[in-house]
Amino acid sequence: MRYASFVIVLALGCLALVLPLGCNKSIGDPSDAENQVTVASVDPNMVCADIDGTIQQGSGGGNTVVFYDAKNKLTFESRVRGNADITSNVWSDVIFTSVDITYQMNDGGPAPAPWFDRPAPAITVKANSTTTVDMITVPVADIGPGAPLDTAGRLGVVTMVFHGKDAANQPATASVKIPLGTYNACQASGS
After folding, report:
1. What is 36-97 written as a DSSP string?
2. Which residue of 102, 161, 162, 187 sits 20 to 30 Å from the alpha carbon of 115, by its own alpha carbon?
3. What is the pTM of this model?
């Protein structure tokens, strides 16, 4: 009887030691895609809203002011949870299909309206690789005279949250916060 009690206590003690190892929160939610995607870089590293546009000479000799969307290149990087050897498994690829974009200005003044569940170009991030895409970070409608971003020298943040799924229909997200500034001229306006 003592031996049986000892064995039961020993078994429960071993189980108590091993159980926390099986409940490691570092692997994420089991219902999430196994391909964990992050935004690794943004180029340029700040959103530049050119609030006075670019002057273009018209065919009739008159000048026209043209405004452009603010764009940035985003590089997505993936890492497959628990298996770094997967490099070309299509079942682990993530496809982002929508993005939420919100804006916050440091001065508390007017900001562009948020875009929730905005359709994004299908962004495919293959397992254990990177993908770079050009994204509109501030639409032209929010830049220039009468728009929320019409005064030079304002600073803020653009927050983008991408939503998608892997081939097993498991949800995947990636997010990034990018500094935002309004200026009279941007280095790569319209590109």
Report:
1. EEEEEEEESSSEEEETT-EEEE-TTS-EEEE---EEEEEEEEEEETT-TT-SS-GGG-EEEE
2. 187
3. 0.76
- The total number of structural domains that make up the chain: 1
Q: 3-state DSSP call for residue 178? A: strand
Domain that holds residue 57: 32-183
Under DSSP, the state recorded for 143 is B
Q: b/e for 20-51, b at 16 or more Cβ within 10 A? A: eeeeeeeeeeeeebbbbbebeebeeebbbbbb
What's 101's domain CATH number?
Answer: 2.60.40.1940
Q: Which helix (H) or strand (E) holds 3?
A: helix 2-22
| Cα separation, 141 vs 115, whole angstroms | 13
- Domain membership flag for residue 136: yes
DSSP 4-29: HHHHHHHHHHHHHHHHHHHT-GGG--
CA dist 143 and 70 (Å) reads 9
pLDDT in tens, 64-106: 888 999 999 999 999 887 655 555 567 789 999 999 999 999 9
CA distances to 11, 40, 103, 138 from 74, rounded to whole Å, are 52, 8, 17, 14
